[in-house]
Amino acid sequence: MKRFAIAALMACAAGAAMAGDGSHWTYEGEAGPEQWAKLSPDNYACSGKNQSPVDVKGTIHAALTPLKMDYHAGGNEVLNNGHTLQVGFQPGSSLMLDGERFELKQYHFHAPSENLIKGQSYPLEVHLVHADKDGNLAVVAVMFKEGAENKALTALWPQLPKEAGAKAALGAPLSAAALLPAKRAYYRFSGSLTTPPCSEGVRWLVMKAPVTVSKEQVASFAALIHHPNNRPVQSLNGRVILD
Ligand SMILES: [Zn+2]
């Protein structure tokens, strides 16, 4: 317990330093997900009606247009912010959605998965975070199921900074394309950031097909974060999920 408390404190120190707003949050305990909205006025959206993650079920068939990604090797640094490990991108990788260009800003991981698909949890989920010119967000989520070692992670994992607050330059630039499944079918719904300030209006695109990750790769990630980093699923409150 003490060890967890110290890890959480370090995580918050790092997170607060990154956010610059002094808010302190965790995945468990007194500053856990049920309390996020009360921790800071900035987090009021955490108690909103359009929150993420969700259990993807009861979907409505909508003949969604195929996702158009234009990803290049632009991932050049990785940050351990105490809450997750995040690869930052230089401009040049994008997603076309609703006639707008969304620039890939970063991707980061959650273990176990945050979203569920028909009630099923996965050992790992990656969120590829994009923003358009007005700051609207679109997140592409990919699930990892246990199986063969993931080659994209094989290149990244040894470079992950071990301490909260640490950042490292990547040896060679990475492309997010290596994280995508071959089949591009996806679910779509409106949701939020899954961490404070839980801002809503985020376009969520969850790939239907998972990719694989080895048990050892999941364990290596968990050993760096020290605790599960998934927010519990949130109520749909009447939202529809398209497929
Ligand atoms: Zn995330």
Automatic annotation (TrEMBL):
One Pfam family from the UniProt entry? Carb_anhydrase
Q: Which residues form the signal peptide?
A: 1-19
Task: Identify the domain of life.
Answer: Bacteria
Keyword Manganese assigned to the entry: answer is: no
Q: Name the coenzymes or cofactors required.
A: Zn(2+)
Give a short account of what the protein does. Reversible hydration of carbon dioxide.
Q: Which family, according to the similarity comment?
A: Belongs to the alpha-carbonic anhydrase family.
Identification of the protein by name: Carbonic anhydrase
Give the lineage: Bacteria, Pseudomonadati, Pseudomonadota, Betaproteobacteria, Burkholderiales
